Amino acid sequence: MIRFSHFVLRHRLAVTLSWLVLFLAGGVAAGQLSDQLTRDFSFPSTAADEANEAILTTYGNGARTYPLVPVVVLPEGTSVDAPVVGQAFEAAAVAPRLRVVSYSSTGDRRFIGTDGRTVFGLVFLPPAGPAPASDRGSEITQAMSRVLPAGATVHVTGLDELSTVDDTGSGSSVLTETLIGALGALVVLAFVFSSLLALVPLLVAAVSILTTFLIVLGLTAFSEVSFIVQFLVALIGLGVAIDYSLLLVTRWREERAHGHSGDDAVHRAMASAGQSVLFSGVTVAIGLIALVVLPVPFMRSVGYAGMLVPLVSVLVTLTLLPVLLATVGRRVDWPRLRREDNASRFWCRWASGVVRFRWLAAAVGVLILGGLAVSATGLKLGDADSAALARSARPAAAAGLADLTRAGVPSGVLTPIEVLIPDGAAGPAELDRLPGSYAAVAPPGAAWQRDGTRLLVVLPHDEASSDGGKATITRVRDSVDAIGGAQVGGFGVLEKDAQQALYGPLPFLLAVIGLITFILLARAFRSLLLALKAVLLNLLSLAASYGVLVLVWQHGYGSELVWGIPATGTVTFWVPLMCFAFLYGLSMDYEVFILARMREEYDRTGQTRTAIVEGIGRTGRLVTSAGLILFLAFLSLSTAPSTEIKILATGLGAGILLDATVVRCLLVPATVSLFGRWNWWLPNWAARLLRLPVPAPDTPAGTPAPTPLTRVG
Predict the structure, then answer these.
(1) CA 22, CA 27: separation in Å to the nearest integer?
(2) Which domains are present in the chain?
């Protein structure tokens, strides 16, 4: 790392110009990226995805998206059999490749509410393109309103419509959220540095984010990239880049306070903090392997982009930041109201208190995380139910759902099941009689019969994500098994299969990622116990963050208060996996920051208690500030218009907050204190396997005889 530092400073002009070019190119790329992202949620090799692909190939719509649902309430005296009603639903086909089913096209009176005046239909859309579903909803409303008689109302609803909180475009939303997060980070950095140096990490973050956008734009030329990526790159990139900069700048100030100046202070900071930054970035990237290896395109694209975030941030931090510190660092470190001569007195006192009451601190930490982890056992995966989404949806979508349910129509009709069968095969009579089926229809016309096939639509009574909806999907599949060539599709069916595709290999992935991380940590800390404890505490913290998701969203303890959205009853099926992929590495950052400093102090003094107090004293403010900055970034992410993004932001924010407080302030110092010299034990065989120098018997790291758990040091 010292050699690398010398190389960077020898070529400081080339480094600066290179990053300036990438920064400017990234700014151009950021404006173009949104148009290149997709909303495809395909899951190859699943039965539902194969069915949906067959439906899209033949009919060009539906399958991988929920339909829009126009709901018409007629004035008194107007019959649902009036020609104008049929004409209105025909007018709902506002563009080519739309497929419409309603009472007018099927004659099935279950498309009519119990009041006799409310009638609904389904509009199946082509795959997401330049005109998103929200625009189609407005177009359909206007087209139908022109045909309907005076006094009639039409509202377009549907799960996608209900999931959109407002009409904010994704590009401006990402920019707004990033600016909000940056403002919160600046406040924290100003407190930490008390000088103009607070602006430097923000500059590093800006370069990192825009460079990552540039690379992601390049990726879109070779593969599809999910729209979720833009949110994650901007806000996780903001937090991670600032975290890494914070660590290096703080150590640089410490070296200057100890009398080192100029390039020497940079080299010394790079030798210690720079190594921790490099290791942290690699650890975050390893956690995202869980997404990259999955055979799911949109998750894989998130994994690739997620891996780029820490790696680019590390590269900018270890190249551009040393140049900035060596050239303008001393001048911008003004007025220097806070100095780094000594460890923080507050955090030293805190660490001493935790060491003194280590059993109590460990018990409190385990109780908090354990209690939340127990809540996580009730986790249910699926879409938020329509009633919950309606509370924060746009007025028209919420009004459409209200009209529908007031007329006695179950909300399950929003999540239809599409059945593709050979033309001439048995009709929907058997499907109509299945438990959980509200209606099953076989609409006539070319839009529903093509290339020797025809489409049936099953309207379930319960929404597809609910237990009842999943049971109905299973019954439909069992019912059509005897029909040769029959396939069952629809977005709700796809989600059911997707859960198995995503979580089936998860135990194996956890084992592999845990083993790789353990080996890297053991090398970094030169300790088996510290590495094992770090992995276990990370998993406990992750389970606790799932518990927060269950309490806040599934049960609604806080979702309505903060976001105006009541309990969803479920957690979006892909959110827990994505939380694991990001939190596993991000949380490990703080473990590396703290334990690397403890290891350094132990090597210097040979005393565990001194290592704990000095380690926490030097990193306590750093870790708390870094965690707060990342938490503020996720808080900003939670303002995104999508409810699913809000749920993801909650899980990520809760995980970081728990990790930076309960784990790092209580459990880490308490457990290190409890295990005494066991923390530093590295047997000769392990050192050889890890390709580390075998410690001499008289060195602290090589002392094989541990002290009892009740002693310290």
Answers:
(1) 8
(2) 2-36+167-381+503-700 (1.20.1640.10), 67-157 (3.30.70.1430), 396-491 (3.30.70)
